[in-house]
Specification:
This protein has 158 residues and is of the alpha+beta class.
Length: 158
Amino acid sequence: MLSSKGLTHYRVEEKPDRMKQLGTHLVADAWQAPGDLLNDPERIRRAMLDAISAGGATLIDLCVHQFSPHGVTATATLAESHIAIHTWPEHGYFAADLFFCGAGDPHRAMQVLQEALEAKQVKLTEFTRGFEPGLGILDSACGEQYAPRFAQASAARG
């Protein structure tokens, strides 16, 4: 567990030595944020865009929805994966989910969300996403349908 500036960071699982890491997944619970900021869809949109930029990600699509009587949900589809945020202004709370594979920095993106929405406390849980070699698609039940094509392609390459 790491802690600084109201951020508590839990690393759920260390990456096994043999793991093929495909991405980093952050799940955040943030509280003590001003309700008016958490209920402002334009503020949430701007925070998401700033987080995406700061994280070095590429935006494909952004959807922001205002609930009645309060609350906002925003989802960003990224070339690197996604960011989602759900707010409960009446509790000064928001939940965020940031999954980046390949390039980009989800930690920097989360820092921008925390600052933009003025959350005084954040609990951040990090997951390493990927698989161990030998557990790829060809070893799974659904891989059986692809195995003949992969075998043909390998044979054709010599």
